[in-house]
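Continuing the series of single-chain predictions for the mutant panel. This is the parent chain; the variants come on the following pages.
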Amino acid sequence: AYRGKNIFPVREDGSIFMSLASFRDHLLGATLKEAFRKAEHPERLYVGAVIQNCFGDEYTCKTGAQVVGKDKNGRPQTKVSDAPPDKNGVEEFCTDPSYKKYCEAGQVRALYVNETESLGPAAARYYASKLWGGETYYLQADAHLRFAPKFDSRYIDEVKAAKNYPKAVLSSYPPGFSESDPDYVGGTTGARLCTCEFSHSDVEEHIIRINTGGHCTNDQVDGPTQIAFIAAGFFFARAEFLRDVPFDPFLPWCFMGEEIALSSRAWTSGWDIYAPRQNLIAHQYRPGRMGLPKFWGSVGRLFGRPGPGFNTRLQKKIIKRVKNLVGYPEVSAEEVKKDGDELVLTDLEFYGMGTERTREAYVDFTNIDFSTKSCKNMQWCNTCEMA
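Parent structure:
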């Protein structure tokens, strides 16, 4: 009934909805506190959090794969151990006397999912998008962040400065932080998503991966300049984005591929993508050596196949949906059907490319070459040429 339109009218009150997909995240509570503490207008900030936790009700929780030493060849040895139930970040936030008023005002919406039912980040972001309630702007990010002062007002000003506003998306890979770092103030130059590559990893099935390009400025442009891609870990846009580029519910178990799908769908729907000129959030990047739980570990245990291998097999099937969408010639609908995997193309007409610009135009725009499986230089992006 609501396909092609928003379920709520978009309010013109400067409110921001922040989508947070949280998988067993010990920093969710701190992230919420930091966001409301640093916002210039916390009364206009709303959160939709998908909390995928181990609650410890029916089974013993487990850690991630923790490095416990090295084998005789010097390779890391890992171990998965028993663990206590996960911290409930929303409860931590809502019981804090300094912040409980925001929960009582209905500004924090939560969907709880047992970690055994987690389907990966793309699915969690789809669920989080359904918690949006008519706010003016949509901010998607991860659940382990720090924020610069007045980040909310500053992002609004920045997206309004984009030439294609209101159909403008701000996106970047935020800088990293460690928990021992001092208070985050932001202000560094934002990363530009100007390069990509076809992954060489068999695990990732040669999907297109987004990378950063060089830093540049353009004094001839009064505002942010265009880039080629959207990062799933941070983007900011008006909420009409949800109408034009609804999140795809058919990407379970996928860790890679959502960014190239989101980027191409947004651009072909008439949305231009811009690099914010300053970083206003920081992200905790989490290499495997930290031993934190990963969703593919839960998937493996659920199906009696410990380790990441079983999820990789599932992803290998689903990633065909993304490849077909973006134009891999060897993953045409006919080839997918030959393999007996036509189910992965379910409702793709509703979660596919837009109608404002063509897929072929996006491939030309980003200089992606499917015949050689290469991403060529985008001069316009790396030199800040386009407003």
